[in-house]
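Practice problem. Given the sequence and the SMILES for nicotinamide-adenine-dinucleotide, write out the predicted structure.
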Amino acid sequence: MRVSVIGCGHLGASHAAAMAELGHEVVGVEIDPDKCAILATGASWFYEAGMDDLLAKHVPTGRLRFTTSLAEAAAFADVHFLAVGTPLRADGQGYDVSQVLGAAEQLVPLLTRPATIIGKSTVTVGTVARLQQIITERAGVEGIELVWNPEFLREGHAVADSLFPDRILVGLSSPTALATVEQVYAPIMARGDIEMVVTDPATAEVAKSAANAFLATKISYINAMAQVCDLTGANIDDVAHVMGIDKRIGHGGMRAGLGYGGGCLPKDVAAFAHAVTLLGATDATGLLDAVQAVNRSRMDTAVQLVTRAVGRPLAGLTIGYLGAAFKAGTSDVRDSPALRLADRLHDLGATVRVHDPESLDNARHSHPHLAFAPTALDAVSGADLVVIATEWGQYTRDPKLPVAAADRTPARTVVDVRNALDAEPWLAAGWTVHQMGRPTRSPGA
Ligand SMILES: NC(=O)c1ccc[n+]([C@@H]2O[C@H](COP(=O)([O-])OP(=O)(O)OC[C@H]3O[C@@H](n4cnc5c(N)ncnc54)[C@H](O)[C@@H]3O)[C@@H](O)[C@H]2O)c1
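Answer key:
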């Protein structure tokens, strides 16, 4: 099929590459000429595992190309995915859906034959109805169908999640639209192990928000239990393991740490909280307010842990700070808990010397007041303590790092605010290990 993907950011570029891998002819439309130019070379403008390989495979053959021209996409494709951003409004009161509405307002009049618009962005319930209105008012031809197909991919796993999703959710209201999405996703559905859930558009909108809010709830719940563990001397990792064995609970999202972050969950939970408040859904409002309050308080807990670990005020100390990305596997620093904590430590007078394998340039750009180091060892050299702020495997699972770092960091105190560290090699190399909601471990103890 001939497909366009409008908005080639973290979601759209991954989706465009996946569509090409599934065998479609794809044009990606990206309004930012710099991002578009990089994608057109067959490389990604952000780090995402596996992305460069797919782009390098499909851009040179012409099966996947990128343009800044919506008119070109309208002329070429019969299916148009909307993957533009839906940031939080400046006043925090719900989503700014202007990119979605704006893209539709521009696209619809350019369509000269029947086509299907498939929205993938995360939106407030009611947005599909507004888009339907735009189609009714602006279409120059009959047969423009609208589908809402929320995306559930996880950054750091975007390529794999696009090709092997847990489910495909489509909100639609006509058999023609259903026939089109079945054709688009036929290569995935042919595997026989994935459910395509077909609902009305409003249900699809709510289901996506509800799923994100539930994940955030799980994360805040286990973080709240980490506080209980801190106060009782219990071990949150064991508590989470015991809980997760129960099939009704599961292990996903059950690692205590700095709380959720990134370009999606924080704004999606905030926007959904605002939406349910407007609706008068008081139970949901109370729940989501509590979830967000726990998430905010993780920064206080982390600052307390760092202060306790070093045993004195932070002013004047140097912190070897490993991680800036909001999670491992991506260069994305949007609403990164790692950088939020770095800011807090910086404000308390510490020199925070940051390393990250993929997001150093982004962090330098967004947080120029911090210090930066080209390697993890440079970051920790001569530091008064080491903080592991993003769960990259090269920090948490490489047994050589604690040995090499021990030579450079006499204090040998590591604070793992992600509870991701394989602590044994660190203990063996003489480090004292502090984690969230876990008793401190010292070498030889
Ligand atoms: N990032 C994720 O992992 C993820 C997962 C699921 C859902 N989502 C949702 O997907 C949407 C996009 O998220 P993202 O993280 O990719 O955002 P992003 O900011 O990385 O990407 C959006 C892109 O759209 C481009 N754009 C804006 N208007 C355009 C237009 N008129 N024509 C062409 N390009 C245009 C922007 O320049 C930007 O590159 C959001 O609604 C988000 O909530 C994201």
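Check your answer against the key. The mean pLDDT is 97.
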